Amino acid sequence: MSSSASYVDLLIVGAGPAGLAAACWAAQYQMSTRIIDQKGNRTETGHADGIQSRTLEILESFGIVDPILRQGIHDVDMAHWVTNNGTGNIERHKRFEADSGQRSRYGQIMLNQGAVEQVFVDYLVSKNVYVERHKVAESLHLLSDDGDDTQQFPVIVGARGVEKYEKDTIHARYLIACDGAHSWVRNQLDVPADEVSEASTWGVLDIVPITDFRLYNHPIGRRLVRHYRPHERVFIVGDAAHTHSPKGGQGMNISIQDSYNLIWKLGAVITNGAEPTILETYETERRPVAKQLMDLDSRLVQAYEEEENDNSSGIYEVREQYAGFMAGVDVTVLRVTDRGGSLCFRVIYANRRGWKLWSVLQTPSAEPLT
């Protein structure tokens, strides 16, 4: 069995939407990055399929929104179908119109997760970054580190190839755990989480009318880790940090937005000499978003349950109340101050009201400041 060792700035474990988005962002900087995944291929079917306004803005900043817009279905309406007890037929009961783009230049797009992942992968290839498939992380060692010397490589991950059985020791400055709901990294570090389980199971159907369909069962449960940064050099991102039901169409979006929030800060620290204290803001900014997502999910589950009693108006009330959050545009104003020559960024939560304000707050290019 062959073995090798390497040194990188960032090691990303997991090549789902969160991991791929992190790698795309990191490719904008003069940083070395490796991304590994135990699966042999990207997602083929199922999983997430809704892309919200803020996520499309992020993709635009990378210059990769066009293939998403070409492939996706625009202006998606949501309908509720129920069984007519008199006829036994399934009938459309209510309809919820899509966001027309009043909060952003983009409305919602429907495109399956696999196609979104492929757009990320194609972008990475153009940057000479390649996902290392069939590679499993087996061991994690964290050397003593004061957190301020960003030139050290205190994270040591032992990995193994599934097919060729080669051993690989990866020394990294930072480890980013994007390895999903059953996160290996999270489990290795025994990161505590708040968990809630519901007493029901829901199904998600991918349907092509008058043909076969696929059914995905989702036991209703929510998990939110208490620490997004369980170690000075380790960050938990996406489903590894928060899981919930698929009802709000938020999982892939919040995960990509987690990565977007974190990576520019790591890039600033590693390549531009920013103070590592800026990394503390990842948790203080992103965990409250996930907490709000847990609240939304809880209310949606309750509203859907009440629909059984023909009281489905509650679903629309919840969605209307959280519309800005679900689109991803209830956030953010950046305030920049100069502290002794170092830029300090602070996020202030605010609602964007209308097109004019959005134009002022439009995300700039993903090219890093130098």
UniProtKB/TrEMBL annotation:
Keywords: FAD, Flavoprotein, Oxidoreductase. It comes from the Eukaryota. Residues 8-214, 220-295 form the FAD-binding domain. One of its GO terms (molecular function) is FAD binding. Pfam families: FAD_binding_3. This is FAD-binding domain-containing protein. It comes from Penicillium nalgiovense. The lineage of its organism: Eukaryota, Fungi, Dikarya, Ascomycota, Pezizomycotina.
